[in-house]
Amino acid sequence: MIFMKRTPPRGYLMVLALVFGTVFLTVLGALSSLVLTENLSQATATSAARASAIAEAGIEYYRWFLAHNPNDLTNGTGQPGPYVIPYMDPEGGQTGTIEIDVVGNTSCEALTSIDIRSTGTPTEDPDVSRTITTRYARPTVAQFSYVLNDSVWAGPDRVITGPFHSNGGIHMDGTINSLVTSSLSTWLCTTSFGCTPSQTVPGVWGAGTNPDLWEYPVPQVDFGAIAADFTSLKAKAQADGRYLPRFSQTNNTGAASYWHGYRLIFNASGTVSVYRVTSTTALSSTHINSGDDLLPDRTLIANQTFYSTLTIPESCGLIFVEDNVWVEGTVDGKVTVVAANVATGLAPNAMLSGNLVYEETDGSDGLTLIAERNVLVVPNSPQNMILNGIFVAQGGAFGRNHYPGSTYEHRTTLTILGTTVSNLRTGTKWCIGNGCTSTAGYQTRIDAYDRNLATDPPPFTPQTSSDYQFVDWREE
Residue ranges per domain, the chain? Predict the structure, then answer.
């Protein structure tokens, strides 16, 4: 048998070398590309973080500038922006650039807030920049769903969105998803607040949701500080807004003519139809904060006469009514209605006589209603009532009186989008009998603060601090 030696084909090893070389180079290239991509991504992330830090430094710089130069929106130049400022490293020279734009928002010729826009760019990577926009303003009650100067019981039917604060105690049985704060560490909860027998309880107490969001004691909200300067508001309304003089005719609260005033019906066209209320109907009722006494209630309009249709100035949406006022309709623009009397003898009430809604819900429309005394929902209010606005009962209470044995009980649902501010205890639902065997008023209450108005409220909305703060902060 003859054995023959097989010879591998020529070029076999070269082919293997090429194949494995190609695989190796491909893997090496992929690894190199991955490393380079990761390095580039890391460098970009580092530059972006540095750009954000530089932009934030620009915001802090202008806050410092305003603290030393109040109301100077030109960075000391007297000229419009943007203003370019070098960002310096104390040890390494200039490491970036800040570009700042500053815009002041005004209403009724008064500065209401300042928008600061800061763009940061690092020197080592000028193609990377970050922008932060902020609003700098004095905080207002619009940042809360409720601000109260008295103790309160929020029942299990309540659904509340937004911070809830009381200078008194809070019995919280409702559903809430934000901070609940009381200025008291303990308080006496009586049967009037749902405690049988009466007992001393923590500042915030009850069966409500999210007790981890309950805080007490916290500093008080100074109701004296948020008191409106009615004299200056009257002068401002006469000069730049709209003013309605007193129509009621006596300071005797028992007289029918004491309860005359004006009815305002807001129109979607940016106007308000004004009627003079010439008579009201006396109803037997239990008033808010007056125990079980049945007192005359004159919030129900009996007769009215047309007075005028007013156009609300875009530059100053302030209406000062030196009398009682009834309000309803569709609000177009940012409007503040004040019901107050700068003389003695009359402390006007504001009545909510129908639904109050906005023409637009994007924040361009808003209402603040300030009453020297009470803000009251009328007896013939809608079964399902919607109220958009910031409602301030400066010296009295926000709520709805109880009308026992009348056709005005019960009511179904009250939905408030905005803020309720009340010097005295609020109430829109009444618990009747021991153990709350029956109820009156609105059976379901839904409250939510208006996020848009929290950062951009109507003019002269009461402030909770005299110090400017950042009320909005966003990275573009």
Answer: 46-137, 141-463
